[in-house]
Amino acid sequence: MRADFDALAAIGATAAGGVDRRSLGSAHLEARGWFLERARSAGLETRVDPAGNHSAVFGADGPTLLLGSHLDSVPDGGRFDGALGVVSALHVLLAVQASGLELPVTLEAIDFTDEEGTLVGLLGSEALTGALTMEALRAPRGGRDALEAGLERAGLKEEELAAARRDPGSLAGYLELHIEQGPILERAHRQIGVVTSIVGARSFSLAFSGRAGHAGTTPMTERRDAGLAAAAFAVAVEEVVRRDFPSCVATVGDIRLEPGAFNVVPGVARLALEFRSSDLQELDSLEVALLARARAEVTRRRVALEIEPVGRWEPTSLDQEICDAIEAAADGLRLSSVRLHSGAGHDAQALAAITPAGMVFVPSVEGLSHDPGELTHWDDCVNGANVLLEAALALAAARA
Ligand SMILES: [Zn+2]
After folding, report:
1. pTM of this prediction?
2. For 315-344, how does the pLDDT look when each residue is reduced to its tens digit (9 = 90+)?
3. How far, in Å, is the centroid of ligand 1 from the Cα of 380?
4. DSSP secondary structure code for residue 114 in this structure
5. Ligand 1 centre and the CA of 251: distance in Å?
6. Cis before residue 140, ω within 30 degrees of 0?
């Protein structure tokens, strides 16, 4: 497993020690090719569905127990996010194959397309569950041009993505091993996290339009500076969340000014806004409060505002029986565990809508993730993979 993990980490490796495998870019496609080849060379059947989800399959009888994660990364990301889950899923299949066990389920290790949202976010898993909407494809987070180019590179057709949909009756459940990406396990000195729920998130593209002008001759009192509207809004986002929504998080992750020059007052400012909560009503209230705050800049700065929703993922509870199975697996392996909530989005969130879904977390050193310095100690990776295997065997037995 270590050799496979290292082989994957070398694909799209960055000088800083991480990986850059943006969804459907060349390094990501190379990693996916490596995964299929590795599975084939071990004698597993392989599949690629119409949404580009890549799978290795073992066992031909019974409903399918999906084990998965993703091989794409954020720009300048880490080696563990997603990749650990895919390599571990593959090794669960290899372990069962090697043992000669005959299970009443088919095991499928799956690498979902575009989990990270460089293009759309949960693209492959939502196509599989039937939740992928035309709206999400029309106004994707990464923009239409990037989506079209990515699909073209991967040989995928937009009109065929929805054909990846699976019949819920064909599935026995979904399990995912992932790094925690936060500090809870490390601080609590626990080896395994049993994920009970996953945060909901919404993202919006905002564009403030004012009037570009000469930076030397346009008096301060006569400006309609879109850049100032964006800057004031970004600061206000933090104020609103910290004051009124202390259990939520919100981020302005990108601001682009046009035309973008030392000597021109910005005529247009485009912002990427994202916010998250584990509570649906709170998510609704936060949306109202933040968008109202953006509209306040319209009168204050005499600018126009366009708001476009570009992503929506609901807060999700994971399956109780699977939580119990993961906890029992950790106990059986004499590993300490704790139940926790995930503040990061995952493919399990999509899968939970159509089949019992569960997640295993392993500790992230200093809680660091989406960063080249992302690290999970190898012993913890192996612990997580063993819990994944034991939980998969328990669920398979329960479905006999
Ligand atoms: Zn991930």
Report:
1. 0.90
2. 999 999 999 999 999 999 999 999 999 999
3. 17
4. T
5. 18
6. no
